[in-house]
Amino acid sequence: RCVQETGTWGYKYISNMEALKKWGESQGYVRYIHQKTNLNTEYIVIGLLVLALMLLAQGIAGGFVIFFIGVAIPTYQTYKAIESPEKTDDTRLLKYWCVFAIFMVADSLGLSLIHISQPTRPLYISFAVF
Questions:
Q1: What's the pTM?
Q2: Which has the closest alpha carbon to 89: 32, 35, 46, 26?
Q3: Which of 7, 20, 29 lies closest to 79 in space, CA to CA?
Q4: How far, CA to CA in Å, does 56 sit from each of 68, 74, 104, 108?
Q5: What share of the chain in percent tops pLDDT 70?
Q6: Fewest beta carbons within 10 Å, which of 4, 21, 26, 71?
């Protein structure tokens, strides 16, 4: 009854919360936190997202949060996908790791080019020669 009285905003809110709950239940670490604390799954997901955003905004553990989101979670999902009989998740994660590798190589090459092309680089080389 309350949902019908709130209009379309209420429907969107409830469907988004249900989507968070469904996604959270599919993640092993969220299920583990839910079992230990008995908190609602959607609130755990929201709390983890807020915590990650706060850490990034403060500049604290930014590298760790980026590593966790970009490497640790996909690694865990890849491990689970290898054990599952379905092939669709394997294909999706293989594409992720291929794109990730391309970005890592491009980043490494870009940083190398920046180091080589620094204007002060010839001074370092000439100082080392003498």
A1: 0.49
A2: 26
A3: 29
A4: 12, 19, 21, 23
A5: 78
A6: 4
